[in-house]
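User: structure tokens for this one?
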Amino acid sequence: MRILVTGGAGYIGSHTLLQLLREQHDVLVFDNFSNSSPEALKRVKQLANADFEICEGDIQDAGRLDQVFGDFNPEAVIHFAGLKAVGESNEKPLEYYAQNVAGSIELLKVMQWHNCRRIVFSSSATVYGDAKYLPYDEHHPLQPANPYGRTKYFIEEIIRDWAASWKVASAVLLRYFNPVGADASGRIGEDPNGIPNNLVPYISQVAVGRLKHLNVFGADYDTRDGTGERDYIHVEDLARAHLAAIDFTATHTGCDAINVGTGRGATVLEMVNAFEKASGRSVPYQIGPRRDGDVARSLAAVEKAEHLLGWKAKLDIDDMCRSTWNWQSANPEGYRQD
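Assistant:
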């Protein structure tokens, strides 16, 4: 199948790309490299022993997209491209709405011009906001608490309307919980710009010596050890979910939102302990006050993914920590060392 992957050089995009190539799909990556490295794509080619097309461009550029669609003629799109830092979205909301929402509109327009009817969208559990109940299921009210989450929510609604207006269209909205881990090879992994926004990359940079200690925001939550609890999912499991979703779009029309998680939670300190076990390194931490907007617990209901996609997470937090350390220890400066 010919699949166009926007943002394919990013963390989740590169791991999904590797799985697509291993399944012998014909792939084109469309990326502006604003928060990713071409080195990741070079390594994916080596790991898969397969070639694919790369086009540098921005999803806000309809003319560039039109040219790429005309040349490649994709049968489906996996849409990762977008800005993704919650804190930054509060500081630069207009950039987030322009890139994420307006860019997605341009992508959908061009898809329709070229009769490309199938899309899998990289959404987020941030669309749910504060939990009215747990675990979050796909019927939970959507009340995102920051501009980043609202961009995901608005894009979901736009895709719903697009699919409803074009009866042959098929869309899957994958709501990720907390992706972590790396490919087993240690050749590709998460390489955030600057100080990591997410827990596990921060822990791994402390373990490798790039950062002095981990800041734990709050230890007085109603959880097993007082620290926040999250549903972490291995990026390899998440990549498999995208392939299952692409297969689903081949035989279904309309739009479905589907959680992608494990249904199990781990606290901050449990993740620290698991990482220390995996790495053999100490991860010093300091406990500080709660951070605005953080919730005590976030867990996914995962039955819909298993029912519709035939997909279920296979890997646990020990696998996540081992693979993250394998990547970080082999690449202490990420992709920048090459």
